[in-house]
Amino acid sequence: MRPTTAPPRRVLLLGGGAGTGKSTVAAALAARSGARRLELDDVWQAMLAAAPAGSPERDVLDVDGMLRARGRGPDEQLARHVAASGLVCARLGAVVGDVLAEDDRDLVVDGAWLLPSAVAGLVERGAPAGARVRAVVVHEPDDEALAGAMSVRRGGARVEAWHADSARLAAAYGAWVAAEARECGVPVVAARPWATAPDRVLSAGCQTPAPP
For residue 128, with 0-12 CB atoms within 10 Å meaning exposed, 13-18 middle and 19 or more buried, which class applies? Predict the structure, then answer.
């Protein structure tokens, strides 16, 4: 049993659009502090796999499938990404609670599926086990830099037509998340310069949350 006098564990929720480097930052911070890391992509993939084929939940969650089909306009693509993030965030509190219950370490959670409105609620309420929750959004405002980062992520994979839509959606969603974060009082940190991003995220995450 965890001693009652032990300091509260820390939970850092790290959000932002795809390609901003938040996963690299999360890995660096977890390695530096010995914290456990939770990638929300794993939660999203599990939810997608568990959703029955043809179900409304699967239709919403399958953002990549939507992009590959190329039948939706930019506004609808953005709305679908936000809706999918909402489904993932609906389980965020329970997932964080389960991880804290099985592990005594601090926790770093990262993923594009973190909605600032949901994150702000967790920061305000705290998490199970009396953890201290903080949140930061990483943002890259330069669309060309973002597209380049996403290209690097694909490695040597063949470029397909839907990849351009994916880059545009990442930019639009990242801007949307950053704007909502500011409305909710969640700190927004610039993705670049890359070398100082972990320290800047850590500094922002140590601040008292700003009121919405």
Answer: middle
pLDDT mean over 10-32: 96
pLDDT band, residue 1 (cuts 50/70/90): very low
pLDDT 10s digits, 71-100: 899 999 999 999 999 999 999 999 999 999
CA distances from residue 30 to 60, 143, 210 in whole angstroms, order as listed = 31, 28, 24
Q: Average pLDDT, stretch 89-114?
A: 94
